[in-house]
Amino acid sequence: MVSVVTHPLVQHKLTLMRDVRTGVKEFRELASEVSLLLAYEAMRDLELTTETLETPIQQGDFPVLTGKKLALVAILRAGLIMTEAIVTLVPAAKVGHIGLYRDPETLLPVAYYNKLPADIAERRVFVTDPMLATGGSASAAIQSLKDAGAQNITLMCILAAPEGVAVIERDHPDVHIVVAAVDSHLNDHGYIVPGLGDAGDRIYGTK
Ligand code: URA
């Protein structure tokens, strides 16, 4: 399932991110803000129970989070900015990291780094990858999470190409994708069109 977050704040901030004139500082701030707004949507079905407490006025039953604990997993490197923003909303979440590169011969993603919370199987997992392009890395990262026992996985992206969405839907039909927009297509260099360029380079000022 794909949820496109059409909220006007998300769409406005995404347009600013797309603008080639937007510099590193503003791009980073926007990526963090969009990530928070995506998390608001991605986490809307977190379980609640009630806790009895006294306000300064009277006693009552009030909602508190319950159910599975959370894990945020960043796909390196661009996913880092998303987990760093989202962990401010859910500070008890554990954070994992997965790094992948594409083997130049097989063109398949190969993991060079994988550090996950030991109890990932017991946690609800939110994977962050700002750009869902071919879907190859995201699909491989999700597979390694499943191999580690994760069962309830949401993939959070800022932008997606239809090709990437199709790969995740084919490989992992159980995974919910939450994204700010699904663009037109991928170009011959694997960039999302119209897109926003290389998210990692724009976040870190590299090129
Ligand atoms: N990764 C990016 O950062 N941008 C794209 O357009 C595609 C993949």
From TrEMBL:
Pathway: Pyrimidine metabolism; UMP biosynthesis via salvage pathway; UMP from uracil: step 1/1. 5-phospho-alpha-D-ribose 1-diphosphate binds at residues 77, 102, 129-137, 198. Its EC number is 2.4.2.9. It catalyses: UMP + diphosphate = 5-phospho-alpha-D-ribose 1-diphosphate + uracil. Binds 1 Mg(2+) ion per subunit. The magnesium is bound as Mg-PRPP. Uracil binds at residues 192, 197-199. GO terms for molecular function: GTP binding; magnesium ion binding; uracil phosphoribosyltransferase activity. Keywords: Allosteric enzyme, Glycosyltransferase, GTP-binding, Magnesium, Nucleotide-binding, Transferase. The keyword Methyltransferase does not apply. Belongs to the UPRTase family. This is Uracil phosphoribosyltransferase. It comes from Deinococcus ficus. The gene is upp.
